[in-house]
Design brief:
This protein is α/β, with parallel strands linked by helices. The protein contains twelve helices and eight strands.
Length: 276
């Protein structure tokens, strides 16, 4: 049993074939996929998708990349949507939320302040409703940690983690798990692979971030992209991505599936309840 803790199943790359994607993944043992929202406009879409196949669930949140277009009333709409979703067993977390200090536009002082304000308000929703969070931490690990200490949601996942070992252990001390996916499969991803190999086993969860962050065997060169080559990442790749984790830690596939799934359930208690 595998769990993909982060997949943007509503992305345009999947078109109308999301349910086929879910079925393909289920056929390879991916028993659950978490679909995070990114903006107010797709709250209903991710919830609807999650009810379209037995191995789908969802989270609600406003992604930092969507913050520039977001309005303050979107935070009120998020709180209302989350409160309504509490009766839905397929709703499992607040996400995707966080901070992104990689994109230049998002690093401008006014936009940085807006990102931080939206992140803090979404953490308050998670804290108030005792919900875990799926956090985006691109070049922002220390700042995300600062707000997690201030607002203290119960638990969550640092998605696509790519920080230092010290930062990783700080997330773990706060009760967070760290997401590892396609980036781990590249030999040159030395820091990510070191963390995957050395961190406590209870801290690791698996993800695809599909259709993004493809594993090395799906990576397209600039020339391939220009030629329109179709090499889309999807949850069915998760068992093969997990082979890298097995090689790094000396685990069997059964061990990796058991450990990573137990960790996903610990990070997302409503997901564990759904599995039961």
């Amino acid at each position: 049993m595998w769990i993909d803790t982060h997949c943007h199943m509503d992305a345009h790359e999947f078109g109308a074939g999301a349910q086929d994607v879910a079925r393909r993944a289920a056929g390879l043992g991916v028993s659950m996929i978490v679909i995070p929202a990114v903006e107010r406009g797709n709250f209903k879409a991710v919830a609807g998708l999650a009810h379209g196949a037995p191995n789908l669930s969802y989270a609600l949140g406003i992604h930092p990349i969507c913050v520039p277009q977001a309005k303050d009333e979107d935070l009120l709409a998020l709180r209302a949507a989350v409160e309504n979703a509490m009766i839905d067993p397929r709703f499992v977390a607040i996400g995707e939320i966080g901070l992104d200090f990689f994109i230049p536009q998002l690093c401008e002082p006014a936009m940085r302040d807006k990102q931080e304000r939206f992140f803090k308000e979404q953490l308050r929703i998670a804290r108030d409703l005792d919900l875990p969070v799926l956090t985006h931490v691109r070049r922002s690990q220390d700042q995300v940690l600062k707000y997690l200490r201030q607002v203290t949601p119960p638990c969550g996942i640092a998605h696509a983690f790519n920080g230092s070992e010290q930062q990783a252990r700080m997330f773990i001390e706060l009760g967070f798990r760290l997401g590892f996916g396609g980036a781990m499969t590249f030999d040159r991803a030395l820091q990510i692979r070191r963390l995957a190999a050395s961190l406590p086993e209870h801290a690791l969860v698996l993800e695809t971030d599909a259709p993004d962050i493809p594993p090395h065997w799906l990576y397209r060169t600039a020339g391939q992209r220009a030629a329109g080559a179709t090499m889309r990442n999807e949850p069915a790749q998760l068992p093969r991505i997990a082979e890298t984790l097995c090689a790094l830690r000396g685990w069997s596939a059964d061990e990796a599936a058991r450990i990573s799934s137990a960790n996903a359930h610990a990070a997302l208690p409503r997901l564990a309840a759904l599995a039961d």
